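Example pasted here:
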Amino acid sequence: MHQTPIHRPLEVQTTDDGSATLFVPELDEHYHSVKGAYTEALHIYRDCAYQYAAERSPSSPLRLLEIGFGTGLNAAVTAMAATPEHPLHYITLEKYPVSPALVGQLGYNAFVDESLFSAIHAAPWEQPSPITPHFVIEKRCCDLLTAPLPTDIDIVYFDAFAPEKQPEMWSAPIFARLYQAMRPGAILTTYCAKGVIRRLLQSTGFTVERLAGPIGGKREILRATKNETE
């Protein structure tokens, strides 16, 4: 069922690599790392997840689930990397869509393809929309806590707000649902490398590895892999 978008007050702020992020005064939380929004999107999500999965997979379509569409930056850098050998169906869940006026203030045209970024934001919600011949986006306005999840997922970008801000998003039931939605061998990446989150992912059934974080940013990130035999 379509959910009416909910909006909250947001402020545009500049991160250390020159790219913008959004600040949520209500939560005292940023959408991206203040050390570099663009750098974070490239390293944690595009490189350590999409490109890693593409290198491990035979030439075939991939299905990606993003938890938190936010500014659309992760989607844009991934769309730019998508290839004909690994066309991508990118499904993204967002409870609080950002207004077009605020998106226009982000200035991401200095970092990503402007026409592609605009097309991603112009794509209608609740239906698959081809952006390039090998990148389809499906934006769903919904709450992860209650929404049904897509199945046969190869990659998960887990980009929810920090556990101390939204602990309900980082729970055993959520990770169990994601695990069931993923194909054997599928991967999940997240910026959060807290020990409690690593152990929670492991208890769900994932094999978890700690990877170096983005240059100038967090020291470590996590990548979790679902058992190949399940």
Observations:
- The first strand starts at residue 11 and ends at 14.
- Confidence is low (pLDDT under 50) at residues 1-5.
- Residues 22 and 159 are 14 Å apart (CA to CA).
